[in-house]
């Protein structure tokens, strides 16, 4: 069984752990067949091949356990999403492992698949956050109202965005460790205003307004030390026509909305190079989810 799972942008500005946007590319490709033993082979970006360390095999095993199936599997992962990129690399693999086994067993219950995928995500980031896995499964832009029971609101957003991938790493685990247990009420209110306005603007197809709402007071202020270059990058993007810029997931990838996405991408890459950080950009439409 072969599945293809896209990269995703979690948080998407003010929606910490709740908003997620599915991209068309890059993707992880995972092939699984049932077998007596357990074997994981990886090509592309390097990730562990030990079955208890690779998030795709962890989620595949979790799905088998949930289904009460005593079996091993042979798994091949063609890793197209760079790990620690902020593009949901671990989330894509975690979903892919669970989805491939679910399809082999003719299981299409999304909660079972998500429960297994979160087991994999937990291995990578230390906590089972769903805002990479869920948009990768559903496609589009999702608001994750609740994981269990699974309640998702989806907008089939029609937009293109530019994603910039700098050659630095940010571990999600570390990026979550620096977060406070509580935030000031005023910041929570400001985020509520941004997040609810962003959903309405997206629903209305007002992409310029969506861009202006790409801010965050829940995680970004505490993660700035991990991404010291962000303010400079954001300034360069806005000076070159971006409607708005934000961090993808816990970073380091950033994304921007605007008219001339190539021009914005080049400007951001240039700003990274001034910080002596190599970077590349690509343009993607909103994706339709795992296939
Ligand atoms: N199949 C896999 N794909 C990606 N990462 C994996 C996989 N298996 C294990 N890992 C490990 O998970 C960690 C990546 O987790 P992390 O969440 O930091 O990266 P990410 O998922 O790319 O980032 P983000 O969640 O911000 O998009 C790395 O240590 C990586 O080795
Ligand atoms: N919501 C998660 C996304 C990680 O990709 C975080 O910001 O920690």
Describe this structure in words.
- This protein is of the alpha+beta class.
- It has 2 domains: 2-154, Ribosomal Protein S5, domain 2; 160-285, Alpha-Beta Plaits.
- The chain contains 10 helices and 10 strands.
- Strands 1, 2, 3, 4, 5 and 6 form a 6-stranded mixed β-sheet that branches. A 4-stranded antiparallel β-sheet has the order 8-9-7-10.
- Helix 1 links the parallel strand 3 (39-44) and strand 4 (72-79).
- It is globular, with a radius of gyration of 18 Å.
- Adenosine-5'-triphosphate is lined by residues 47-48, 53-56, 77, 83-91, 93, 124-125, 132, 171-172, 249-250.
- Catalyzes the ATP-dependent phosphorylation of L-homoserine to L-homoserine phosphate.
- Residues 60-140 form the GHMP kinase N-terminal domain.
Query: Number of domains in the coordinates?
Result: 2
Low-confidence segments, given as residue ranges, are: none
Mean pLDDT, nearest integer?
A: 95
Helical residues, percent? 25-40%
What's the total helix number?
Answer: 10
CATH class of the largest domain: Alpha Beta
Brief descriptors of the model:
single chain, binds L-homoserine, Alpha-Beta Plaits, 10 helices, Ribosomal Protein S5, domain 2, 6-stranded mixed beta sheet, binds adenosine-5'-triphosphate, Homoserine kinase, 2 domains, alpha+beta, globular, 291 residues, GHMP_kinase_C_sf, 26% strand, 4-stranded antiparallel beta sheet
């Amino acid at each position: 069984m072969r599945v293809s799972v896209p990269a995703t942008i979690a948080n998407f500005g003010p929606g910490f752990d709740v908003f997620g946007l599915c991209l068309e590319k890059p993707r992880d490709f995972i092939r699984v067949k049932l077998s007596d033993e357990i074997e994981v082979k990886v090509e592309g970006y390097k990730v562990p091949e030990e079955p208890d360390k690779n998030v795709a095999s962890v989620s595949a095993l979790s799905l088998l356990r949930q289904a009460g199936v005593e079996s091993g599997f042979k798994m091949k992962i063609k890793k197209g999403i760079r790990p620690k990129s902020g593009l949901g690399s671990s989330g894509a693999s975690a979903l892919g492992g669970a989805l491939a086994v679910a399809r082999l067993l003719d299981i299409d219950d999304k909660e079972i698949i998500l429960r297994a995928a979160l087991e994999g995500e937990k291995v990578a980031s230390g906590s089972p956050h769903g805002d990479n896995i869920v948009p990768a499964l559903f496609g589009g832009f999702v608001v994750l109202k609740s994981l269990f029971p699974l309640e998702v609101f989806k907008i089939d957003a029609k937009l293109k965005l530019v994603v910039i991938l700098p050659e630095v790493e940010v571990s999600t685990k570390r990026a979550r460790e620096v977060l406070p247990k509580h935030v000031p009420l005023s910041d929570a209110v400001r985020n509520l205003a941004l997040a609810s306005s962003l959903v309405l603007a997206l629903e209305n197809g007002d992409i310029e307004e969506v861009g202006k709402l790409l801010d965050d007071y829940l995680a970004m202020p505490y993660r700035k030390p991990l991404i010291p270059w962000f303010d400079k990058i954001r300034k360069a993007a806005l000076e070159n026509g971006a409607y708005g810029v934000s961090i993808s997931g816990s970073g380091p990838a950033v994304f921007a909305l605007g008219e001339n996405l190539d021009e914005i991408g080049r400007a951001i890459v240039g700003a990274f190079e001034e910080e002596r950080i190599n970077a590349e950009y690509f343009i993607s439409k909103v994706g339709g989810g795992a296939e």
